[in-house]
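The data layer described in this paper is built around a simple, fixed record for each protein. We quote a single record here, exactly as it is kept in our systems:
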Amino acid sequence: MDLDIARQELEEFIPHVKNISDSSVKKMAGRDLMRFKEFKKQGIAVKFGRFTQKENKQIRKNIEEFLALTGIDSAEKLLFTSRYPEDKDTIHRLKTEHHFCEKISEGIPRPWRLIYYRARKIFDPNNYKGRYTKEEKEQLKKYQALHGNDWKKISELMSRSNLSVAMKFSEIKSAINYGPWTEEETQKLMSAVKDVMRRKLTTENASSLSSLEQSDSDLWIDREQLYQPLPWTEIETKVGSRYWRQCKQKWNSILTSKLTRGQKLYRRTNGLWTKITLIKRLYETKAEDASEVNWDELSNAIGDVPRAYVQSKFYRLKVSFVPLWKRRTFSEIIDYLYEKTLPELEEKL
């Protein structure tokens, strides 16, 4: 398929496909496009975000069936073939012959690449080794001094996953501040995120880049752009005194504050309307799990607010109105809010 046509057809299912590299688009056209069209016929939308328990179960089923089909004796061999150099050629041949990409994607309306990464996370035995010991932390420091940020090499030496060693090193490499954020730290964070966004926007249109420059009025903070994944370990390095998870949490807090644009959506009459609208929209989704909710659509229904704002309001609702909410499923919480809380709020309004 012609690259431009492939990109155009994929855009229906993946709006941000224009920012994806040509080589990735070619792979998606081969592995995903027909699948996406079949799901569309069934009225099923392509999903992103956190995987549900149902999807995780389907991935496990697909992997187990592929192992039974090919005779490969473990998921680790199938998904981490480089760890078994003596079996590498045979495994690659079997994966090609038995259409590995299609088989592990069956029944899951997501890009193949995301399903593959999720499978690797589920089946990597190195992901489930608990806390790092003091000795392991010292080992990690030594390996990083020897090999730099070659996390693949370090993960093999430590029998931990790539992500695990990278994130653990980011936590221990320097003195970290756990107290309230100072004004100087917050400015460093804002500057670091802006630098990252400026680099990302150089490949996009000039108007986006010009809005980025208007830092004095914070117009560069745009919900659609800044809810894309950000390189938090890089941002952590620029901030210097906080590790990546703290930076991410603080940035979400800044987004929530700035993107509400001073709207008083959660006070008095407007607050009641917001709660009522949120409950109704959540009920209409018929979602079984929070990961199945399109939080961006909900944020548009309530006002021009970020996803984190809407999620925080839902959290307040369930904590305030749903007894024993921790013991209930997501759908049970929504049903309770709709049946019990909604009539009270509407009467109050």
Confidence is low (pLDDT under 50) at residues 205-224, 261-265. Residues 183-201 form the longest helix (19 residues).
